[in-house]
Amino acid sequence: MQRFHLPRVEVALDTSIEAAQGNCRLFCTTTDDHPAVGTGLDKIYGRGFCKPRMWDQYAARHTGACLIIDRVRFDAQIRKAVSPDVVVHCGPVTYQNHSQVPSLSVDDPLILNGDDVRLLGVSPAIHKHLTRYHREIFFQKPRDWADERELRWLLHLLSDDELYVPFGDSLAGIVITPDFPPEYRRAIANYADAHLIEIGELRWSNFSPEMVPSTLACVRAARA
């Protein structure tokens, strides 16, 4: 029987788990709701960019920008940016509340298999675990977040190096608000011009949203 010195095992596990987390890359987006398809009044409420709570939470309290990307094209850009042996997972987040009662199942995504650690080694066992339970670990959130309609990409890289993915032809548009910082307006206008991307400005009046051509068009016109 193989014996483990408990403190050493704990240190090895902690170190390997930190390394495995450092090698994971997660890209999170929101998607359009079904009512956004087609034309008609109030369709805008189904668009991914028309979520005021998310603007407040993720876009520096309405001062940031929302990038509209083509899912298929961006997926291709991600896969081109990594080596063929890197597994790319893409899918929607599911929303459910887990029971407070501890699971007694041996098939538990929150429990690392000790036999795998003994037979494979710590790092390979963690890699196997993340591969098997990637949906349960990275693609689930409590129901309170369900209105975000999140779509994620997960990459488990072979190192903790930075990963840069160019948009290529996947960036379809940019949405800002009237509170977008003036010092960045010319830069974003230049980028949009160079890549033939439209910029829209999302405004709220009497609790109703409205998408209008961005005032950045004035900067672009003045430069032309």
Strand-and-helix sequence, N→C? HEHEHEEHHHEEEHEEH
State the separation between the terminal residues, measured CA to CA: 77 Å
Query: Describe the biggest sheet?
Result: 4 strands, mixed
Q: Count every beta strand, where a strand is a DSSP E run of 2 or more residues.
A: 9
What is the CA-based Rg, rounded?
22 Å
SSE-based structural type? alpha/beta
Please give the order of strands in the largest beta sheet: 2-7-8-9
In round numbers, the mean pLDDT is 84
Shape: globular
Question: Helix amount, in percent?
Answer: 25-40%
Q: Helical region count?
A: 8
Low-confidence stretches: 1-9
Essential attributes:
alpha/beta; globular
How would you describe the overall organization of this protein?
By secondary structure, the chain is of the alpha/beta class. It is built from 8 helices and 9 strands. Strands 2-7-8-9 form a 4-stranded mixed sheet. It is globular. The N and C termini lie far apart (77 Å).
